[in-house]
Amino acid sequence: MYKRIAVAVDGSETSDHALSEAGTLAQEMDSVVLLLHVCEEMPVMWEPAGLLLMQDSMKAVADAGKDLLERHRKQLAERGAAVETKLVESYGGRIGSVISEEAEKWRADLLVVGTHGRKGVMHLLIGSVAEGVIRTATIPVLLVRR
Q1: Domain assignments of the chain as residue spans, ordered by start
Q2: What is the rounded distance in angstroms from the CA atom of residue 33 to the CA atom of residue 26?
Q3: Cα Rg of the chain (Å, integer)
Q4: Is 81 helix (H, G, I), strand (E, B) or coil?
Q5: Which H or E run contains 70?
């Protein structure tokens, strides 16, 4: 039985499916859900005008992440779930490992992540956050395909 379920959300259709599955599990098991969003790192521009523009862009990305978390928090709360949120704005690693580390810090029993299920060249070119989670997580991971 899972009492603490972390779910990674990014606003995609795939993560929406993962969120739905996590919500269903939380209802059935009377679990607390952690909604986790990791802001994408942006390339650094070294000229002063570029740095100011980048700071504005980073704030916009963080604000969008906060809005996403709040929208999903309300969605799960309407289903009767206890919900917490976590926005990670700054990190030094790959998104997959950050997701698994944050879920483990929160003491999650289960980590739910959406996956596109890409294979071959598309997987090599785009990479996989889900694969990064699987490689680094020390807790059970549920992959949800759309």
Answers
A1: 4-145
A2: 7
A3: 16
A4: coil
A5: helix 48-78
CA angle 73–108–79, rounded 5-degree value: 30
The tens-digit pLDDT sequence of the chain (146 residues) is 899 999 999 999 999 999 999 999 999 999 999 999 998 765 555 555 555 555 667 788 889 999 999 999 999 999 899 999 999 987 666 889 999 999 999 999 999 999 875 555 444 444 588 888 999 999 999 999 87
Task: Classify domain 4-145 by CATH number.
Answer: 3.40.50.620
Spatial CA neighbour of 10 closest among 57, 65, 58: 65
Cα three-residue angle 104-91-117, rounded to 5 degrees: 65
* pTM of the complete model: 0.84
Instruction: Give which of 23, 115, 29, 36 is closest to 68, Cα–Cα.
Output: 36
Q: Helix 129-136 and helix 95-105: axis angle, to 10°? A: 50
